[in-house]
């Protein structure tokens, strides 16, 4: 993030930008523990999605100028 990519889209043109992300999924458990005696009060399963790779791509469309019909 924070890197600047050239879009290469000319004037009077419209383009869509796609963003593809792949996630690394980490699973585990959250434990709530009593700080006085160390007993586990509750626990639940947890899943965290961390971004591993991300790609961007532009898709060009036809000229966006309006044309008059005769």
* Strand-residue proportion: over 45%
Mean pLDDT equals 76
Q: Please, how many helices?
A: 0
Major sheet strand order = 1-2
Order of helices and strands: EE
Number of E-state strands: 2
Task: Using the CA coordinates, give the radius of gyration.
Answer: 25 Å
Tell me, briefly, the overall form.
rod-shaped
Helix amount: under 10%
State the separation between the terminal residues, measured CA to CA. 49 Å
Sheet of most strands: 2 strands, antiparallel
Give the structure's gist in a few sentences:
This protein has 70 residues and is mainly β.
What does this structure look like?
By secondary structure, the protein is mostly beta strands. It has a domain at 22-58. 0% of the residues lie in helices and 64% in strands. The chain contains no helices and two strands. The protein has a two-stranded antiparallel ribbon with strand order 1-2. The model is unreliable at 62-66 (pLDDT under 50).
SSE topology:
Blueprint: E1 13-33, E2 40-63
Antiparallel strand pairs: 1-2
Name the features.
mainly beta, two-stranded antiparallel ribbon, 70 residues
């Amino acid at each position: 993030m924070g890197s600047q990519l050239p879009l290469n889209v000319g004037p009077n043109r419209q383009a869509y930008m796609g963003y593809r992300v792949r996630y690394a999924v980490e699973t585990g458990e959250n434990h709530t523990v009593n700080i006085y005696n160390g007993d586990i009060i509750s626990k639940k399963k947890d899943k965290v999605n961390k971004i591993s790779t991300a790609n961007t791509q532009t898709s060009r469309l036809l000229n966006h100028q309006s044309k008059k019909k005769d």
